[in-house]
């Protein structure tokens, strides 16, 4: 069961975006597992993808197609990752694009394919291709919730975020969905994420906005430290709500748009952590006082990845020595441990590298029993800071992943 508020908000319609879905029986019967996004002509699209060397066939195809121009359609299947599938997997990804292009009467490079699910199995192409027409026939502008449901794998809840905002007197919308609950340590984005706005933004600026927002959202989460073969995040700007196209970060509207995008993407990223496989705790690891951002991230991820830290939080055991150990082996050079301060929420557990004299086991246990906890670390060596979001490691995580293919 997910941690905290994971409710789906009102998903505002983005002008220029339509969504359809179908039950194609890619892996499981009687559920939506095939989703199509349709973008209006002139939509500018950007993407970021996994850095896993074993990246999936659809990742290869999507990256190539994006280089060739703006896509008109996205096609997403769940239940099968089409990763580790060799040349046949590549041909199947391309065949999916060719078939949808034929139906929709666009060029194949105007289709971006995405897959998620089991690695190492070939797509059931007859069923997949058979679902394209029904999905395309169902497209409508208010189907974001259906799409969020249709891309789920081990997720227990659909994930969405949506905001409306104003630029120069014009009201615009930013809406997005994501999926992911395990194999989460993005090295670019998230497992799958799709965000769109109807604000007018140039293609170059769309990519810049996406890169900036990803680095403070999807690139700051971890559940189990595993980077997926299929990580992909797409940001599209249709421009259909009107206004003058934004082409430079010097445009005063840029900061407002970026703030909205970051909020939406942070929400989508944190929803993934809140729905981590078997999670019972949502943990914020905030590190400050670093010499640079990289060492703050190194230490935050060292804490967030540690199985010993994560299992202690699952047990509500204030075994805070595990946090100090994780800080110590993070690889930060010339770290002066006597300057380090550590808190669990408002309870200081470490002062100047040793146990805080006023710390009590009861105070630590009180914080550890909460479902949402902040681990705050001050390195005392600079002005840099950064934050990573993670969850605990429970019995259910092992059960879910042991039974994943059954």
Can I get a quick summary?
This protein is of the alpha+beta class and 406 residues long. The chain has helices spanning 57-68, 86-104, 125-130, 132-137, 144-150, 203-215, 253-274, 293-305, 307-314, 321-328, 361-368, 395-402; strands at residues 17-22, 34-39, 44-49, 73-80, 111-118, 159-167, 170-179, 192-197, 232-237, 282-290, 341-344, 347-351, 354-355, 372-378, 384-391. The chain has a six-stranded mixed β-sheet with strand order 13-12-11-14-10-15. A five-stranded mixed β-sheet has the order 3-9-8-7-6, with helices on both faces.
If you had to describe this structure to a student in words, what would you say it looks like?
By secondary structure, the chain is of the alpha+beta class. The protein has 2 domains: 17-274, L-amino peptidase D-ALA esterase/amidase (4-Layer Sandwich), CATH 3.60.70; 282-402, ArgJ beta chain, C-terminal domain (Ubiquitin-like (UB roll), Roll), CATH 3.10.20.340. The chain has 12 helices and 15 strands. It has helices spanning 57-68, 86-104, 125-130, 132-137, 144-150, 203-215, 253-274, 293-305, 307-314, 321-328, 361-368, 395-402, and strands spanning 17-22, 34-39, 44-49, 73-80, 111-118, 159-167, 170-179, 192-197, 232-237, 282-290, 341-344, 347-351, 354-355, 372-378, 384-391. The strands form 3 sheets. The protein has a 6-stranded mixed beta sheet with strand order 13-12-11-14-10-15. It has a 5-stranded mixed beta sheet with strand order 3-9-8-7-6, sandwiched between helices. Strands 1-2-4-5 form a 4-stranded mixed beta sheet, with helices on both faces. Helix 1 packs across helix 2, helix 6 (203-215) crosses helix 7 (253-274) and helix 8 crosses helix 10. The longest helix has 22 residues, at 253-274. It is globular, with a radius of gyration of 22 Å. The model has no long low-confidence stretch (mean pLDDT 94).
